[in-house]
Amino acid sequence: MQRLLSLSDGITRLIEWIGRMAALLALPLMLVIVYDIISRKLLGIYPALSGSIWHISSTKLQEMEWHLHAVLFLLCLGYAYLRDRHVRIELVRERFSPDLRAAIELLGCLLFLLPYCYLVISFGIDFTARAYHSGEVSAALTGLPHRWLIKAMLPLGFSILALAAMATVLRNVVLLFGPADLRDQARSRP
What we know:
Elements: H1 2-23, H2 26-45, H3 58-82, H4 90-93, H5 98-134, H6 147-151, H7 153-177, H8 180-188
């Protein structure tokens, strides 16, 4: 049981690191949004900028915005799950004992979350492979190339979420079936 808890802790540390690194994408996301807004306003006043090195088409900037937003969201899914930041029915859940909450979480992960992650990962890999092999690019004439890069984030993000679910399963197995001292350790972890 100690090994299960240690494995859960190791997975949790990895996902926390990924989440913290991915959260740094908020800064370039904000910069791209601000640059897009400012350049559109300035180009209306100074059309001579449109041929300069400072000009990137608004379409590319807007696609970059949603690419960064999608990557940020997908890479932080597992982190948010481990930190218990996803939507729950708090009115009902808070009335349950910690053991009942752990049992519900365990069953929810095994019956719903992990199978759902498996489906998204397997379909996401095919989705990405088709985009790569067909050389899919943006539908917009001046959009970003290599659409497979953003599509690859879908199976990656859900793989991280599946790892978070596995860490939760391991921790809840210890919490429900482990010796008393390990139960206390498992209960004190996120």
